[in-house]
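Researcher: We plan to redesign the surface later, but first we want a full-length starting point. Tokens attached.
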């Protein structure tokens, strides 16, 4: 009877360990694509913490101060994103139109008047330029197609930023209490 209980207890412990390891593996697999968004959210919370503290002194509410910082960051990112993408797209289109409008053959004739392979050179240059611009447009289109994935990463980033600003000090103090070092030494390291 005692050996059966030990075997059952041993089996339960083994099963618990396997389930915990499986759960950690599953969480890692789920969060793996979002891990950089989480890291950047924590990093930006650290960088924006002085602004949050300043707003907290004025507003006196953690959630509202954190929301203001997050919305300000959203506005900055959306503005920069739309300006940069629009500018890049316009530059690529304008350059492509300009290259198609210029008479490349006459430019090559002026540079290489007596060269026997100038037709092949001009067509090679024109094809290369077309390839460069079509690749640029293809990459820009691929980037635009990936916008839903980027939005998901941005939402995770903003959520982590919000809670890191709001509860970051509490979490830091909790983890600091778990460190098995005297508080005098901790104060030197965690200023």
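Model: Full-length starting sequence:
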């Amino acid at each position: 009877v005692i050996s059966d209980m030990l075997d059952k207890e041993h089996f339960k412990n083994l099963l618990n360990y396997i389930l915990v390891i499986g759960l950690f593996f599953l969480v890692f697999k789920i969060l793996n694509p979002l891990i950089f968004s989480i890291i950047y959210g924590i990093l930006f919370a650290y960088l924006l913490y002085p602004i949050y503290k300043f707003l907290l002194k004025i507003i006196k509410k953690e959630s509202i101060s954190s929301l203001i910082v997050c919305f300000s960051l959203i506005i900055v990112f959306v503005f920069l994103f739309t300006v940069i993408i629009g500018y890049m797209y316009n530059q690529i289109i304008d350059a492509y139109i300009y290259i198609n409008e210029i008479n490349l053959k006459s430019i090559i004739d002026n540079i290489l008047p007596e060269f026997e392979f100038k037709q092949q050179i001009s067509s090679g240059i024109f094809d290369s330029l077309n390839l460069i611009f079509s690749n640029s447009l293809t990459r820009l289109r691929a980037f635009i197609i990936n916008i839903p994935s980027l939005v998901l990463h941005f939402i995770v980033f903003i959520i982590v930023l919000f809670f890191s600003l709001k509860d970051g000090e509490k979490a830091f103090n909790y983890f600091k209490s778990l460190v098995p070092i005297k508080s005098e030494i901790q104060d030197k390291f965690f200023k």
